[in-house]
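[scheduler] slot 2 assigned
[scheduler] job type: sequence-to-structure, two independent chains
[scheduler] chain ordering preserved from manifest
[runner] begin chain α
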Amino acid sequence: MGRFVDLTLNGFTYGVIYAAVALGLVLIWRATRIVNFAQGALATLTTYIAVSLLDRSVNYWLAFAGALFAGLVIGALTERVFIRPLYGKPDLNPIVVSIGLLILVESIAGAIWGSGDRGFEPAFSQIGISVGKTHLEFSHFDVFVLASVLVLMVGILVLFRWTNLGLRMRASAFAPEVARLLGVRVGRILTTGWALATFAGALAGLLVAPKVLLSPNMMDPILVYGFAAAVLGGLDSPLGALVGGIVTGLGISYVGGYMGSSMETVGAAVLLIVVLSIRPEGIFSRPSARRV
């Protein structure tokens, strides 16, 4: 029973990290109908920025905030420089560009900070918490991870449901020409969407780095699981990103715990196939009619 509890808590912790990555993918998909394969690489880049600040004796929380701000700036620049010229072009072009960005950013990170692995200090202790005589493999840092992603998710839900900016972002995503006629500056809104998405990815990078060794390719497997979570929940649903992330995290944790870590990727793939076979549009997305 104790092992099951530990695996469940571990699954929740990693699940919300996958959810943060999934949320970034959802934000970009809602805004531009593009799957950003460079999401993980950009998150790694912002984590290295935090490391550089820490190496210069900057306060931990200032470095943390600096990396998140860098995520906003990098996301906005990525949209303006690399993605905006592709609007109206064949749908394959942005996908190819995002894959190219993945390779480019990881190469730049390796050239600047080296390709070797290095540690990243957590904000809080990673020693498991003891409840009475029971020791749980769930640390104070895991509590911080859960709280951070939940705050991010609540903020995004409030943004989309109860703010003018969220309304403009939805309008720009689903009817950009109509939005322009109503006075919405669609270009700025799309830039904001990319900035927020990279912010979410930056948070995921900062939260996962203490759990794994930091390297230029650190986020590659996390991106795969985050993409699975986004598809499970529905690429149009921020709430689905959270639920999909938790479901994916729990599934991978149970498979890895009971069947071995080598089976984790297989478990994620099987979960994705089963859900898509039953509900191809994802758990929280509504099926839409397609004109033929």
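[runner] end chain α
[runner] begin chain β
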Amino acid sequence: MFCSNCGYKNRETAHYCIDCGQPVDRITRMHKKGKRNKVQAIFLSLLLIGAGFSAARLTDEQTVQPMSLEAENTTQSLTQQPEAEAAPPQTESAKEKKDIIQETRHKVFTIESDEVSGTGFLFTDSGILITNAHVVSGNSDLLVRSADGEEESGRVIGISVVDDVALVQVDAYAGNTPIEVESNQTEVGTEVIAFGSPSGFENSASIGYVTGEGRDFEHNFIYKDMYQIDAQLAPGSSGGPLVDAATGKVIAINSIQYTDGISIGFSIPMHTVEDLLTDWLNNPMSQEEIEQILDQPSESEWSRRN
């Protein structure tokens, strides 16, 4: 064993250097301890560099990536931010649509006659419903059923031979709050909810968008400035309300479904029949006028429609 003091080579079992007399074991231990301290210092430096690199990397990632839920919660805890925050807009929108559907469906009714089944919705607090003329044409006595399954009798008090619109009086619904109506035109791209009883599935709601406007055509009635929608309609949807998914207001009356490989729905805008409806309310049609119209061909004798 070489002496670290003088370099003399001693025996392996020597405790002291024969040349200089220094304790060999003590010098060796000090030498080894010095090496350990050096290694530890190097290792600690590597750890600090690694920590610095990780911190720099995390900083870079935070500038381009959103924080995860765990990281966000940790940051809130460290900065002592309030625990409760406003819900994201998507959650708020979903809750609003749910509330609109729940509220509106109790103001939408299934209308049945001997041959036809359709839909109507509460228009006034005196118990007057709006529906399509082709739903009630040929029938003076109607069965009206609520979302709760309760049945009441209804009678036609207004009907047009030009516009596919009719009013039905249900005395049992007097005093109930009607659905609010939107009198202004609705823009293409507006999210909507179509209510009705498609294919017999009563009080259904279908979400979609207004995909077109100004559609004009004639089929037993004159349809002008119709809204085109992609919300699902089917026979039985006729007369149901088309509701703005943001405001809950009725913007149109679901009336016709076009099917030719694809299915397209069309609804009568409320602003196009507002004057007619107001005139019926202020100047009710006579019973004779209504009966003359009701005596015209019923739905089963007309071409296919909702």
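[runner] end chain β
[qc] chain β: The first strand starts at residue 108 and ends at 112.
[scheduler] slot 2 released
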